[in-house]
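Fold sample X.
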Amino acid sequence: MPTSYQSPMRQDHEPQRSKSQGAQSNLAAGTIRVSDLLGRKGNDVHSIRPQDTLAFAVERLSTLRIGALVVTHSTGALAGILSERDIVRKVADVQGGEALELTAFDVMTREVETADEDEPLISLLRRMSEGRFRHMPVLDEDDTLVGMITIGDVVHHRLLELEHEALQLKQLIVG
């Protein structure tokens, strides 16, 4: 019997399994939808009315430790969005504290980019990056406000995915 001969082992008959990257694994992040992220994050949306003052809005932003408020009509319909950036610009234009007496309607962004629940997360991230905004209200098929996605939510989700991928690779290497 030659010295290089090795008797067959159980794994010799098992199909070879490869964990290398492929189109499916590399595009897996693109299959995550806005609704998936909202399901994990929750559907809380903090809003104010168009007639509320900037002073009130600033207090809400500070208390809630958030960067934007959705501005809604009494019916709940989306009227606009008021971000920290909108407020800072107006304070700079009006020269200080006088701006705090203005209403949300005076300062809010009226042309609001919104997300659909079925939109892929990667598409949402691309739109947020290209539009240079950090908050996006989510509407359902009836145009009802169902959530708010922030750039931080998307980044946090992606970091969790990367940690999971790293753990899988480590387990593959260690065995």
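Fold sample Y, listed below.
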Amino acid sequence: MALTLMSPAFTQDNPIPKKYARSGENLFPPLKWGGAPQGTRSFALIVEDPDAPRGTFRHCGIANIPSDWDALAESADTAPENAPRFYRNDFGNARYDGPQPPRGDQAHHYIFRLAALDVPRLSVPGDAGIVSMWNEARKHMLDEASITGTYQS
């Protein structure tokens, strides 16, 4: 069984509700997954907008998600101190920042990518940013799943 990722808030290639956008409540949308491969010791997640005017824009990066988790709740960024680590996004924040395409742009695609990793923790500092975290995660990736939602201002 392959790793799968879904959200109760939106379905593949359909609009993400406004409450998950920066112009809404900026809440992290709930995610659920299954089918983690044997040997999974943690998960990492990124949220990217490949349609951004200056190239791919990263809205969220989370690592050190425990291997016994199969979901992230709405507003997961309010988790306790010993929870998974959020990495600095392209807005400069170590948290989730939702969709915010420029006004007048066609709908942007927001790709939520979950990786099953063979290590319990990544040792990348939080201020290193999402790209550094994801590059390290890829070295330990056993499987990857994604879901894509759209958003238009």
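Sample Y note: The radius of gyration is 14 Å.
Also: The chain has one domain: 4-42+65-151.
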